[in-house]
Design goal:
This protein is an all-alpha fold. It contains 15 helices and no strands. α4 runs parallel beside α8, α4 crosses α13 and α10 runs parallel beside α13. One of its GO terms (cellular component) is membrane.
C-alpha cells in the first residue's frame, strides 16, 4: 500500500484524526488568561503593589511557559505536510515580527521620554531577536522586556520544519513516551541547574531565558498534539484541569514559602508544565467534541486574539505609569487596586487597537492572502 493510500485510509477510518476545519477556540481564549497572569506579575510589582497578590503573582511568569507549550501544540496541529519551507517561515515571520518591530520602535520612544538609556547592543539584539542568547539581563530584558520570549520562538520556528517529520512518524506509545520524557527531562535539568548555580542570575538565564532549554516545553507541546492526532482524547470536564492548574500554582507557591526557599522560575515552570499540557489537551478535546463552554464565547476569543499585543505592550505602558505616577506604590490600598484594574482595561484597549491597525493587517499582507489569518490555522501560535 502506498504512503498516500495509508494516509487516506487513516483519515477515512480513524475518527481520532482531527478534521481539517475544526478550530480550537478554547486554546485561543486560554491565551488571554496566560497573558493576563504575566501582566499581573508586572503591575502588582512595579505599578501598584497589592499585599498578598504581589507575592502570589511572582510566579506569573509561568504564563510564558504556557505560551511555549501552546505554540508547539498549535504548530503541530495545524501543520500541513505540503507546506514549503519558505512558506512556513514567511507565515511565522508575519505572525510575530510586525508587532515586535512596532513595539520595538515604541520602546525607543518610551525610553527616551522617561529618560532611560539603552545601549546599541540592547537595541540591535532586540530588533534581531537574538537577545535571549546573551547572558546579560541588561540585554535580554532590554528595550521591551517581554520580547525576550520571541527570541525563543524564533529558534522554535527555525527548527520546527526539521523536527515535525520525526514526531509524525511516532506511534501512540512512542509519542506518549516523548511527551512524558520531555516533561521529566525538563524538571531534572531545572533541578540540577538550580542546585549548581544556587538559583542565582545564571539559573535565571539558563532556565528561564535561554532558548535551547525553553525548547523542551515547545517540544512537549508538539508531542502532545501528535499524541492527540493518533489516539489521545481526554474526556475530562474543563473545570478539572482549570482547578488543578490553580491548585498546582498555589501549591508550588506555598511550598517555597513553607520551606523558606526560592526555587526559581526554572523549577516552578517545570513543575507546572504537566498540568499546562493537561489543560491544553482537555481544551482541545472539548473543541473536537463540540462541547459548549464559556471558553468558546466570542468575547473571550477576542481577548485571546488580542493577547499577543497585550503581552508585548503592557510592559511599555507600565514603564510610563511607573515614571509619571510613582506615588501609586504608596497610595491607599483601594487606590492601588483601582489603579491596577484600570491599567488592565487600558492595556487591553491598546492591545486591541494595535491588533486591528498593525498586527492583523501586516500579517495578512506578509502572508500574501486576504483571508483572515486566524481562520487559516486551527488556533494561533
Amino acid at each position: 500500500m502506498s504512503a498516500r493510500r495509508i494516509r487516506e485510509t487513516a483519515t477515512c477510518h480513524n475518527p481520532l484524526v482531527p478534521e481539517p476545519r475544526i478550530y480550537l477556540h478554547r486554546l485561543t481564549s486560554l491565551r488571554f488568561f496566560a497573558a493576563l497572569v504575566v501582566v499581573l506579575h508586572h503591575i502588582t510589582r512595579d505599578v501598584a503593589p497589592i499585599p498578598g497578590l504581589s507575592q502570589l503573582t511572582l510566579m506569573g511568569t509561568a504564563g510564558v511557559g504556557f505560551f511555549f507549550a501552546l505554540s508547539g501544540f498549535i504548530l503541530t496541529w495545524s501543520h500541513k505536510p505540503d507546506d514549503t519551507l519558505g512558506r512556513f517561515y514567511r507565515k511565522r515571520f508575519a505572525r510575530i515580527y510586525p508587532l515586535h518591530l512596532a513595539t520595538f520602535i515604541i520602546s525607543i520612544l518610551v525610553l527616551i521620554v522617561i529618560g532611560s538609556s539603552f545601549s546599541p547592543a540592547e537595541a540591535l539584539t532586540n530588533v534581531l531577536l537574538v537577545q535571549s542568547w546573551v547572558p546579560d539581563s541588561d540585554i535580554y530584558f532590554g528595550m521591551n522586556a517581554p520580547s525576550w520570549s520571541l527570541a525563543c520562538e524564533a529558534l522554535f520556528y527555525a527548527v520546527f520544519p526539521f523536527v515535525i517529520p520525526l514526531i509524525r512518524r511516532l506511534s501512540v506509545r512512542r509519542v506518549a513516551q516523548l511527551t512524558i520524557g520531555t516533561v521529566v527531562l525538563n524538571l531534572v535539568i531545572a533541578i540540577i541547574v538550580t542546585i549548581a548555580t544556587e538559583s542565582g542570575e545564571a539559573s535565571r538565564f539558563l532556565l528561564y531565558v535561554f532558548p535551547p532549554f525553553r525548547f523542551l516545553g515547545f517540544i512537549a507541546g508538539c508531542a502532545l498534539a501528535h499524541w492527540m492526532t493518533v489516539g489521545l482524547r481526554p474526556r475530562t470536564s474543563m473545570w478539572i484541569p482549570v482547578v488543578a492548574m490553580t491548585a498546582a500554582y498555589i501549591a508550588v507557591f506555598a511550598g517555597q514559602r513553607v520551606l523558606g526557599q526560592d526555587w526559581g522560575h526554572g523549577i516552578e515552570d517545570a513543575l507546572l508544565l504537566p498540568v499546562i499540557l493537561w489543560l491544553i489537551a482537555v481544551a482541545a478535546a472539548a473543541d473536537l467534541q463540540s462541547r459548549p463552554g464559556i471558553l468558546r464565547s466570542r468575547p473571550l476569543r477576542l481577548l485571546g486574539e488580542w493577547s499577543f499585543a497585550l503581552y508585548l505592550t503592557h510592559w511599555l505602558l507600565a514603564q510610563g505609569v511607573e515614571h509619571y505616577a510613582p506615588g501609586l506604590k504608596e497610595a491607599p490600598l483601594g487606590s492601588r487596586v483601582a489603579a491596577d484594574a484600570a491599567f488592565v482595561v487600558v492595556a487591553i484597549a491598546i492591545a486591541a487597537a494595535l491588533y486591528y491597525t498593525i498586527e492583523r493587517p501586516a500579517e495578512r499582507i506578509l502572508r500574501g492572502s486576504t483571508e483572515r489569518p486566524a481562520m487559516r490555522e486551527k488556533g494561533r501560535a
